[in-house]
Amino acid sequence: MKPSLDIRTIKNPKRMKYWWTFVGITIFMTLLYYVAFTQTNLSTRNSIWDAGPLLKRFFWDPFFMPEIHDKIPTYIHAMLETVAIAYAGTLIGAVLAIPVGFLAAANIGGHFSFIGKGILNAVRAFPEILFAIIFVASVGMGPYAGVLAIGINSIGMLGKLYAEVIESIDMEIIHTLKATGASKIQIWVFGVIPQVIPEFCSYALYRYEIDVRSSTVLGIVGAGGVGAPLILAANSRKWEEVGMMLVVIILTVTIIDLISTNIRKRIV
Amino acid sequence: MIEFRNVSLTYPNGHQGLKNINLSINDGEFVVIVGLSGAGKSTLIRSINQMVKPTAGELLIGGENTLKYSDRKLRQFRRNIGMIFQNYNLVKRSSVLRNVLAGRLGHTGTLRSILSLFSQADVRLALESLERVGIADKAYQRADQLSGGQQQRVSIARALTQQPKLILADEPVASLDPPTSHAVMKDLKRINQEDNITMIVNLHAIDLSMQYADRIIGLRNGEVVFDGPAASVSEKTFEDIYGRPIKEDDLVGDVSNG
Amino acid sequence: MDKQKRIPIIPLKQKLFTVGVLVVVLSLYAAASIFTGSSPARFMNGIPEMFNFIINDLIPPNWSYYERVFPALLETWNIALLSTSLAVVFSLPISFLAAGNINKKLWLYHPVRFALNVLRTIPDMILAVMFVAIVGLGALAGVYALFFFSLGILIKLISETVEAIDPGPLEAIRATGGNILQIIWFGALPQILPQYVSYSLYVLEINVRASLVLGFVGAGGIGLILKQQMSLFNYGNIAMIIFITFIGVTIIDTLSTSLRKRLV
Ligand SMILES: Nc1ncnc2c1ncn2[C@@H]1O[C@H](COP(=O)(O)OP(=O)(O)OP(=O)(O)O)[C@@H](O)[C@H]1O
Ligand SMILES: [Mg+2]
């Protein structure tokens, strides 16, 4: 085969387009970073490299202080409250998400599915912490506000995931059941529920893992659980107490994650 | 010259892929390796550039035992060996040119290559390689926009850009239709003749093997069971290598206008 | 077999198991709802109470308060941007160390995975508390906290993507004599690039939400004024903060989501 084409004539046709995209993104990002570095005070009291002694106060000293040991039961009690808030919130959210999820699923909700989708999108768009603040302000501080915030927020994510599960169910079975003369209730009990239950449970467990973390955080705005004593100790710079609480939190979260992941693996 | 001296290869799971191979392949030869699936064709070819490392014996290339090479030496050694795969192994989202330039990576410093600072000579070489396989006009297209035959040509161009002394091809046409298979085999044959590059090619199809090879090596269960010039080979030879009668599937079909 | 017995539709064992699971789940719920004082009935009461509160106390917001809200929200955004940027840069090399198909050195792979798993159990606020203690009050503590927080998420997502890439091109580049960096840069990176950008944007969204609370522990951003106004029960101002924050978050989410849709 003889050279058919002068290679010097080959030019990258998209070269200009790449160039402009590159320039555009660079200018945009430079602007963002310029604002970030000029408008935000990033100065600090201590350097990150002096963290050693503090980390020792967090994660080493507390193990040798009897007065901290005495407080461990209190911390565990507070952490259990956090775990309970997450549990009550996730469970009620998971139940309430079922009707909303069915409404939002295109194959069940039909023309009305946009209502369900709208509710779910609105809930998810609203940051969880804002829910918590509104609930703390309206029903008062404490775990009850936390359960409300977690429950409502879980509906957003779970409802969306449920709707996706429902949209993927095998409609064949339902048509077959209809053809055998099954009633509406029978169709639901034999045709729909068995198909979706395992996924629903798995997602609810997954959400529970997230909610245990969230309810730790929500305590900080007054929604009950371990967050409140944590912030109290942090404000008075009692780092040994904070450190012990962190240990309790991390251990609990890890244990719950392990159990939940294991159950989830078995379900699906 | 490539010399296998008592080369054996045992996979980590204990399976013996190659058993005491003794072979010598001369410069400029077009060797086709045949054998049933699982016979060890890929293992043999991949042991030459040590994509899998033989566990015993000596593999001499230019008189040096390459199995003793350090990691660094091995990389320098590999850049002189082109390799072509059944599935082309192109980076699909990258442009054709970038894929072909990968053939220069062994010759380009790490930092320079990461910054895409290939020398003009390298870029020209890459474009020339593409031109030799007839797809220079596709240089700036994304690799996944090309047909299978074109993609395999890109991978041939990548190998050519290495300016290799040897090209290894592991079932280069197994994913292609008969006319394209012939076209690609012709490309390989032409490169073999024009540049005097040694070709070692694994093939399934016996008609392709007989048509393009200078020499045929037959493998069964990791052992060489046949080694001779292509001219001396008949269907009977294949039946001996395969240990079973020839079937329709063993042929690509004779389409010589590809 | 006893032919007189009814033939069970669902095997007895499975029935017992299902009932057992239900009993456990519900008794745990009973315990949790007593512990937290939130029976289902009370839960349902909470929702109208919330609407009452919104209508009576939050509306109307104190519009003029925007002067304080905007700078605070900007700081929140900047914390999210800077922490995400750092995480995006650092996550890339570590992701390859945490991907089993690239990092074949088990003595390095397992420790990296272990460290990441530990990192991901730590809630973001806890990191914030720690960094406030370490570097002092201010936005930088927030940047550090969210950097480590998002590093864990991002590395997990990216290393999973890396583990799913087509090994063919890597092999081809290894065969040309490329070293490990060249294999990653030419063979692996182009394959993960769209997901890498998309996950980075996703983490930015997460960080924007996470950075709203940082101020409660003194790590900068809008949380600080939110905390002040809450302790003063200044609902008009709180409403304004919630309103502007909601709009800001929605804008960022929408932009980022539409960008992500175009990428993958
Ligand atoms: N990584 C590996 N680990 C263990 N055994 C392997 C490995 N790779 C290949 N083998 C085994 O070695 C033998 C030879 O494999 P090889 O891939 O060389 O065969 P082949 O002749 O190329 O077959 P095909 O025509 O199907 O490509 C087979 O039995 C195979 O199962
Ligand atoms: Mg093979």
UniProtKB/TrEMBL annotation, chain A:
Keyword Transmembrane attached: yes
Subcellular compartments: Cell envelope; Cell membrane; Membrane
Cellular compartments per GO CC: cell envelope; plasma membrane
GO MF annotation list: ABC-type phosphonate transporter activity
Main subcellular location: other
Lipid bilayer topology: Multi-pass membrane protein
Transmembrane parts of this sequence: 18-37, 84-108, 129-152, 217-236, 242-260
UniProt keyword list: Membrane, Transmembrane, Transmembrane helix, Transport
Annotated ranges, domain ABC transmembrane type-1: 79-260
Keyword GTP-binding: no
Family: Belongs to the binding-protein-dependent transport system permease family.
Protein name: Phosphonate transport system permease protein
UniProt organism field: Evansella caseinilytica
UniProtKB/TrEMBL annotation, chain B:
GO cellular component: membrane
SMART domains: AAA
SUPFAM superfamilies: P-loop containing nucleoside triphosphate hydrolases
Keyword set, alphabetical order: ATP-binding, Cell membrane, Membrane, Nucleotide-binding, Phosphonate transport, Translocase, Transport
Pfam family, one: ABC_tran
Any GO MF annotation of the entry: ABC-type phosphonate transporter activity
Domain ABC transporter: 2-246
Protein name, per record: Phosphonate transport system ATP-binding protein
TrEMBL record, chain C:
Molecular functions per Gene Ontology: ABC-type phosphonate transporter activity
Entry's localization field: Cell membrane
Listed GO CC annotations: plasma membrane
Domain of life assignment: Bacteria
Segments crossing the lipid bilayer: 16-35, 77-99, 126-155, 206-226, 232-252
Membrane topology note: Multi-pass membrane protein
Predominant place of localization: membrane
Alphabetical keyword list: Cell membrane, Membrane, Transmembrane, Transmembrane helix, Transport
ABC transmembrane type-1 domain segment(s): 73-256
Gene3D superfamilies with a match to the protein in the record: MetI-like
Family in the record: Belongs to the binding-protein-dependent transport system permease family.
Protein name: Phosphonate transport system permease protein
